[in-house]
Every structure is written in structure tokens, then in C-alpha cells.
Amino acid sequence: MKKLLLGGIAVCAVSVGWGSSALAAEATVKATAVDFRACNFQSGKTMKDLDKVSAKFKQYANKNDFAYSAWTLTPQYHNGAEFDVGWLGAWPSGDAYGLSMEKWVTTGQALQAEFDQVIDCGNHHELALSLPINAPEGTPTDGLLMIYKCTLEDGKTLGDAYAAHLEWGTAKKGMGFLDNSWMFQPAIGAGDIDFDYYHAVVFYRYSDLGAGMELYANGGGMQRHDKILGGVSSCQTPSIYDALSVRAYEGR
Fold first, then answer.
1. What angle separates helix 221-229 from helix 158-175, to the nearest 10 degrees?
2. 113-151 pLDDT tens trace
């Protein structure tokens, strides 16, 4: 079931559209902003070059008191990744997003030029709204990020899917899974997509991922998953990225 895309509108307007559906499933949940940039290295540049500029960005963000966390993403398990490295950013609110973006476009030009010498992120920049499913209390640092593209079944809403993911997330914790997860709704810059939302899952170690695979395949997880989410939404096979923290904002 394909949804109309919410392109070219302000974050606050997107939040209203989200609130009428998924937030109805959990009144106390707060939607936050995340963005993703798909980047390719400039000729002769590598991750070591990006790490140097990322370190400067961390200092810049600290100095300017950005309420912003960021990670670099390296494709690990995928079917023809269309980029060399991804940049994932997250804010605690739409207000924080707006303030940090204003500071960046007015004071970050010199640092942006240094990024541009290392990576080209011009082909894909997308903003989404994030809802926590099994989210940690603090900001995740290094780990593994699994991204599923999910499609609603006929007659189902984002609110139905979010409620089902919350139920499945609770069941997973009870079974011993060690992941954290979120639901991302594509918003600005998503383009003409053929799915409805992303399911983002984080493991901190490959051993945790392997234990989760065992629980899913041989510990009854698959059957439990299908019972809860079957008939609500279906998700494609995920891609996995190695995530390296650039900056973790902890609300200080």
C-alpha cells in the first residue's frame, strides 16, 4: 500500500501528519527528526580522510551547542549499495533540528567545504520522523545498523504498524533479544518510493546479532513475529551497516 509522500513541507507539518496516525498508538511517544545522506568518496579519498573532518565537525558541534548526534555508516551486508559511506544524523526535536540547521548554513560553510573535498553527498539527502520501539536511554554509539523497508498491508495504517512493532519489541525483549529499534517515516527528500516506512534495528556487537539470529530462526522468534506483524505489514530483507559514532548528544 503506497502512501503519498510528504515532500517539500516543514518538519512541523510532517509532525502533524504523523501524529494523526502512529502517535495515536502511544500517546506519550515523541516523534523526533533524523536525516540520512548517501555519499561517495572523492577520487583518492578514504575513510581516514573523512574521520579527520568528522573530528573537526564534532568540535564545531560542541562549540556551537548543537543538539545533534551523528554516525558514519559503511555498507556491510547489502545488495548493491549505491554509496560508499552514509551519514546519519538525529535531533531530539524539530526545534533542535531547525536551530542547528540555521547555525550550520550560516557558520559552517568552511567546514562544509572540507567535507566536500572528501565526500560527495549530492545525490541523496532525506529527512524522516523517528518513533522509538525498543530505544536505549542514552544515545547509541558504535554498532551495527539494520535497515528494513516495510510496506503496509491493505487497510492498515502507520498507527497499526507502530502498535504491532511495539508488541513485537516487547516480545523480543522477553525472549532475550539484545537489539534497539525505531520506526522511521520517510518525509522530506524521500522521492518516489514503493514502501511506507523503515524499521531501524541496532545491535552493538556481532555476537548480539548472531544471538538474535539464533533466537529468530530456532528459538521461536519467527513464529512470534509472524503472529504479531503478519497481516499488518511486510518488510524486505534488511541491509546492514557498520555504524561509527561521530558525536553522541546526551542532552547536556
1. 160
2. 999 999 999 989 999 999 999 988 878 889 999 999 999
| Of 223, 245, 225, residue with least CA distance to 233 | 225
Which amino acid is it at 198?
Answer: Y
| Beta carbons within 10 angstroms of residue 21's beta carbon | 16
What is the tens place of the pLDDT at every residue in 172-216?
999 999 999 999 999 998 888 999 999 999 999 999 999 999 999
Is there a contact between 166 and 133 (Cβ–Cβ < 8 Å)? Answer: yes
Paired residues of 203 in beta bridges: 144
Q: How is 127-155 classified by DSSP, letter by letter?
A: EEEEEEEE--SS---SEEEEEEEEEEPTT
Name the 3-class secondary structure at 211. helix
In angstroms, the CA 62 to CA 31 distance is 24
**Domains annotated on the chain, with CATH:** 11-247 (3.30.70.100)
Distance CA 85, CA 80 (A): 13
Average pLDDT over residues 20-31: 57
